[in-house]
Amino acid sequence: MDHFGEFVQFCRSLELDGRIVLMVDELPQAVENTLGERSEQERREAIRMLQTLRDCRHDPALTERVQFVFAGSIGLENVAASLGASKHINDLKSLRIPPLTPSEARAFLGQELTRLGLEDLPQEAQEHLLGRVGWDWLIPIFIRRLAEELSPASVTPDAVEQAFTALLTHQNLFEHWYSRLRMTLDSRELQFVKAVLGYAADPRNNGIHSRSLSNLAVEHGVLERQVDLVGILKHDGYLNNQEDPACYRFNSPVIREWWWRNVAN
Fold first, then answer.
1. Which of 8, 26, 62, 85 has its CA 20 to 30 A from that of 166?
2. CA proximity to 163, closest of 173, 172, 155
């Protein structure tokens, strides 16, 4: 059965006053999963997926009924570029979600703690938790796993610190941040990216400056690929340079700490 064809026909038959917002989550990951062992046939299948979605976005009978929204934890731009298929997504408009403000972060944390049954967590411990998880890039799964390590009966900043250390031992939470780079980069590119992230993760450094990036690119023989590789780290959620265009820092203090402890050393 052609499930996708059936879905398209169903959407075309809808009688609506407005449009349905259809969110396709983790599309970049789905495309990467299609690649499998990266054979030529799998590559063609991945490109066909992107091309089919583009055809849908340009089908008047669909677009008057459906508004497509694509989301993902890694960048679709990088995945499409690696396939030579950027032309199939050049009609999409990117929406970047900015970091939370301190007040937004505290409100978000409060909601999560209430949901987890930890609404009575002392304010001092909450502030320490925010500092450890990163108040500007809160990731719910890190908050949830950190909360699981806490004892509601006795929560102090020291207890949060112990729970944070325990959190970093859950390799299943973090290993994909390294393994996907191993899968998509060649050996020289991987060594360069590891050096960049190791430098940025070092507690003695406040991120990595563009000059250091260029020096590392020369050292690893990937100067011609520097812009693309740094773009991968930006679009896939490792680093950002929003505060200073010439300096890149980890989005998440949790991932930075894990990388420093488990990959850089």
1. 26
2. 155
